[in-house]
Amino acid sequence: MSEIETADTVDPGLPPAPGAEHYPALGLANSAIALRGGQFLDSLGTPSGANQWLVDHNLAPADAGMQEICAARLRSLREQVRALLAAQVGGHPAPATALAAVNDALTRVPTASPLGWDSVRGMHRTAPHPIDQIVDQALGILAADAADLLTGPDAERLTACASTPCNRYLLRAGRRHWCSVRCGDRARAARAYARRAQATAD
Protein backbone atom coordinates (compact mmCIF):
# COMPACT_ATOMS: atom_id res chain seq x y z
CA MET A 1 0.00 0.00 0.00
CA SER A 2 1.38 3.42 -0.90
CA GLU A 3 2.09 5.96 1.80
CA ILE A 4 1.29 9.63 1.34
CA GLU A 5 3.56 12.21 2.90
CA THR A 6 2.75 15.87 3.27
CA ALA A 7 5.04 18.53 1.89
CA ASP A 8 6.12 19.32 5.46
CA THR A 9 7.64 15.86 6.02
CA VAL A 10 9.57 15.07 2.83
CA ASP A 11 11.52 17.22 0.41
CA PRO A 12 11.94 15.48 -2.95
CA GLY A 13 14.55 18.03 -4.07
CA LEU A 14 12.93 18.35 -7.49
CA PRO A 15 12.67 21.62 -9.39
CA PRO A 16 9.35 22.42 -11.11
CA ALA A 17 8.82 20.32 -14.24
CA PRO A 18 9.52 22.09 -17.55
CA GLY A 19 6.48 24.15 -18.50
CA ALA A 20 5.13 24.55 -14.96
CA GLU A 21 6.52 28.07 -14.82
CA HIS A 22 4.13 29.02 -17.64
CA TYR A 23 1.16 26.80 -16.73
CA PRO A 24 0.04 26.71 -13.08
CA ALA A 25 -2.27 23.84 -14.03
CA LEU A 26 0.83 21.75 -14.83
CA GLY A 27 2.14 22.59 -11.38
CA LEU A 28 -1.22 21.56 -9.93
CA ALA A 29 -1.10 18.23 -11.76
CA ASN A 30 2.41 17.64 -10.41
CA SER A 31 1.62 18.60 -6.82
CA ALA A 32 1.51 14.92 -5.75
CA ILE A 33 4.88 13.39 -6.58
CA ALA A 34 5.52 9.65 -6.73
CA LEU A 35 8.64 8.67 -4.81
CA ARG A 36 10.55 5.40 -4.62
CA GLY A 37 9.07 2.72 -2.41
CA GLY A 38 5.46 3.51 -3.35
CA GLN A 39 5.40 6.76 -1.40
CA PHE A 40 3.87 10.05 -2.52
CA LEU A 41 4.65 13.62 -1.55
CA ASP A 42 1.42 15.63 -1.60
CA SER A 43 1.81 19.41 -1.48
CA LEU A 44 -1.97 19.68 -1.07
CA GLY A 45 -2.23 16.97 1.59
CA THR A 46 -3.11 19.37 4.39
CA PRO A 47 -5.10 22.62 4.48
CA SER A 48 -1.93 24.56 5.34
CA GLY A 49 -0.04 22.87 2.50
CA ALA A 50 -2.84 23.68 0.05
CA ASN A 51 -2.93 27.26 1.32
CA GLN A 52 0.85 27.58 0.83
CA TRP A 53 0.64 26.11 -2.67
CA LEU A 54 -1.99 28.69 -3.63
CA VAL A 55 0.09 31.48 -2.07
CA ASP A 56 3.20 30.31 -3.95
CA HIS A 57 1.21 30.48 -7.20
CA ASN A 58 -0.31 33.91 -6.42
CA LEU A 59 -3.80 32.43 -6.15
CA ALA A 60 -4.57 33.20 -2.50
CA PRO A 61 -3.42 35.49 0.30
CA ALA A 62 -1.23 33.98 3.02
CA ASP A 63 -3.96 34.47 5.62
CA ALA A 64 -6.72 32.78 3.60
CA GLY A 65 -7.26 30.21 6.36
CA MET A 66 -7.83 27.21 4.11
CA GLN A 67 -10.02 24.44 5.55
CA GLU A 68 -9.91 20.73 4.69
CA ILE A 69 -13.05 20.94 2.54
CA CYS A 70 -11.33 23.56 0.35
CA ALA A 71 -8.07 21.59 0.18
CA ALA A 72 -10.11 18.54 -0.87
CA ARG A 73 -11.69 20.56 -3.71
CA LEU A 74 -8.23 21.52 -4.92
CA ARG A 75 -7.03 17.90 -4.77
CA SER A 76 -10.15 16.80 -6.64
CA LEU A 77 -9.52 19.29 -9.46
CA ARG A 78 -5.90 18.08 -9.58
CA GLU A 79 -7.02 14.50 -10.24
CA GLN A 80 -9.41 15.62 -12.99
CA VAL A 81 -6.70 17.75 -14.63
CA ARG A 82 -4.31 14.78 -14.43
CA ALA A 83 -6.95 12.61 -16.14
CA LEU A 84 -7.17 15.15 -19.00
CA LEU A 85 -3.38 15.38 -19.31
CA ALA A 86 -3.12 11.57 -19.37
CA ALA A 87 -5.77 11.42 -22.11
CA GLN A 88 -3.91 14.05 -24.14
CA VAL A 89 -0.53 12.33 -23.75
CA GLY A 90 -1.99 8.89 -24.47
CA GLY A 91 -4.12 10.02 -27.41
CA HIS A 92 -7.30 8.83 -25.68
CA PRO A 93 -10.75 10.47 -25.49
CA ALA A 94 -11.08 12.94 -22.63
CA PRO A 95 -12.98 11.42 -19.68
CA ALA A 96 -16.44 12.97 -19.40
CA THR A 97 -16.17 13.33 -15.62
CA ALA A 98 -12.87 15.21 -15.92
CA LEU A 99 -14.31 17.54 -18.56
CA ALA A 100 -17.37 18.18 -16.38
CA ALA A 101 -15.21 18.93 -13.32
CA VAL A 102 -13.00 21.42 -15.19
CA ASN A 103 -16.03 23.09 -16.78
CA ASP A 104 -17.72 23.29 -13.38
CA ALA A 105 -14.64 25.03 -11.97
CA LEU A 106 -14.66 27.44 -14.92
CA THR A 107 -18.24 28.50 -14.18
CA ARG A 108 -17.78 28.96 -10.43
CA VAL A 109 -15.95 32.27 -10.63
CA PRO A 110 -18.62 34.61 -9.28
CA THR A 111 -19.73 37.53 -11.40
CA ALA A 112 -22.73 38.47 -9.26
CA SER A 113 -24.16 37.47 -5.88
CA PRO A 114 -26.91 34.87 -6.33
CA LEU A 115 -30.48 35.38 -5.15
CA GLY A 116 -31.56 33.53 -2.03
CA TRP A 117 -34.56 33.23 0.25
CA ASP A 118 -35.17 32.26 3.86
CA SER A 119 -38.04 32.70 6.30
CA VAL A 120 -36.24 35.38 8.34
CA ARG A 121 -34.84 37.64 5.61
CA GLY A 122 -37.14 36.75 2.77
CA MET A 123 -35.63 37.44 -0.67
CA HIS A 124 -32.00 38.52 -0.44
CA ARG A 125 -28.67 38.44 -2.24
CA THR A 126 -26.37 35.77 -0.84
CA ALA A 127 -22.71 36.42 -0.25
CA PRO A 128 -20.44 33.37 -0.43
CA HIS A 129 -17.97 32.71 2.35
CA PRO A 130 -14.68 34.58 1.71
CA ILE A 131 -12.61 31.36 1.69
CA ASP A 132 -15.06 29.80 -0.77
CA GLN A 133 -14.65 32.85 -3.00
CA ILE A 134 -10.86 32.53 -2.89
CA VAL A 135 -10.98 28.82 -3.68
CA ASP A 136 -13.59 29.27 -6.43
CA GLN A 137 -11.42 31.96 -8.01
CA ALA A 138 -8.29 29.77 -7.77
CA LEU A 139 -10.07 26.72 -9.17
CA GLY A 140 -11.46 28.79 -12.04
CA ILE A 141 -8.02 30.18 -12.90
CA LEU A 142 -6.42 26.73 -12.75
CA ALA A 143 -9.21 25.19 -14.84
CA ALA A 144 -8.86 27.93 -17.47
CA ASP A 145 -5.10 27.41 -17.47
CA ALA A 146 -5.57 23.65 -17.97
CA ALA A 147 -7.94 24.35 -20.85
CA ASP A 148 -5.39 26.73 -22.42
CA LEU A 149 -2.64 24.12 -22.08
CA LEU A 150 -4.76 21.32 -23.55
CA THR A 151 -6.04 23.35 -26.50
CA GLY A 152 -3.10 25.64 -27.24
CA PRO A 153 0.10 25.24 -29.23
CA ASP A 154 1.94 23.63 -26.30
CA ALA A 155 -0.48 20.67 -26.16
CA GLU A 156 1.66 18.71 -28.62
CA ARG A 157 4.70 19.17 -26.35
CA LEU A 158 2.92 17.73 -23.32
CA THR A 159 4.38 14.43 -22.15
CA ALA A 160 4.75 12.27 -19.05
CA CYS A 161 8.15 11.89 -17.40
CA ALA A 162 9.79 8.75 -18.80
CA SER A 163 11.54 7.83 -15.54
CA THR A 164 9.87 5.28 -13.25
CA PRO A 165 8.27 5.82 -10.73
CA CYS A 166 7.92 9.54 -11.52
CA ASN A 167 4.34 10.61 -12.23
CA ARG A 168 4.97 14.22 -13.28
CA TYR A 169 3.98 15.85 -16.56
CA LEU A 170 6.12 18.31 -18.48
CA LEU A 171 6.42 20.21 -21.73
CA ARG A 172 8.98 18.42 -23.87
CA ALA A 173 11.92 20.48 -25.14
CA GLY A 174 13.74 18.77 -27.99
CA ARG A 175 14.24 15.09 -27.20
CA ARG A 176 14.06 15.52 -23.43
CA HIS A 177 11.46 13.24 -21.88
CA TRP A 178 12.31 13.73 -18.20
CA CYS A 179 11.02 16.28 -15.74
CA SER A 180 14.39 16.77 -14.02
CA VAL A 181 18.09 15.95 -14.20
CA ARG A 182 17.59 13.44 -11.40
CA CYS A 183 14.91 11.57 -13.35
CA GLY A 184 17.10 11.62 -16.48
CA ASP A 185 20.05 10.20 -14.54
CA ARG A 186 17.82 7.51 -13.04
CA ALA A 187 16.49 6.49 -16.47
CA ARG A 188 19.99 6.35 -17.98
CA ALA A 189 21.25 4.28 -15.03
CA ALA A 190 18.33 1.86 -15.42
CA ARG A 191 19.10 1.45 -19.14
CA ALA A 192 22.80 0.86 -18.42
CA TYR A 193 21.93 -1.73 -15.78
CA ALA A 194 19.56 -3.50 -18.18
CA ARG A 195 22.32 -3.62 -20.86
CA ARG A 196 24.83 -5.08 -18.36
CA ALA A 197 22.28 -7.65 -17.17
CA GLN A 198 21.54 -8.64 -20.78
CA ALA A 199 25.25 -8.96 -21.59
CA THR A 200 25.77 -11.14 -18.51
CA ALA A 201 22.81 -13.34 -19.49
CA ASP A 202 24.22 -13.80 -23.00
Mean pLDDT over the full residue set:
84
Main sheet overview: 3 strands, mixed
* Share of residues in helices: 40-55%
Q: Helix- and strand-based class?
A: alpha+beta
Total of helices: 6
Cα-based radius of gyration, to the nearest Å: 20 Å
Broad shape: elongated
Keyword list:
single chain; 6 helices; alpha+beta; 7 strands; 202 residues; elongated; two-stranded antiparallel ribbon
Give the SSE map.
Layout: E1 3-6, H1 24-29, E2 32-34, E3 39-42, H2 47-56, H3 68-90, H4 96-107, E4 115-118, E5 122-125, H5 130-151, E6 158-160, E7 169-171, H6 181-201
Parallel strand pairs: 1-3
Antiparallel strand pairs: 2-3, 4-5, 6-7
Helix pairs in contact: 2-3, 3-4, 3-5, 4-5
Summarize the structure.
By secondary structure, the protein is α+β, with helices and mostly antiparallel strands.
General description of the model:
There is one protein chain. The protein has six helices and seven strands, in the order E-H-E-E-H-H-H-E-E-H-E-E-H. With 202 residues, the protein is of the alpha+beta class. Helix 2 (47-56) packs across helix 3 and helix 4 crosses helix 5. The longest helix has 23 residues, at 68-90. The chain has helices at residues 24-29, 47-56, 68-90, 96-107, 130-151, 181-201, and strands spanning 3-6, 32-34, 39-42, 115-118, 122-125, 158-160, 169-171.
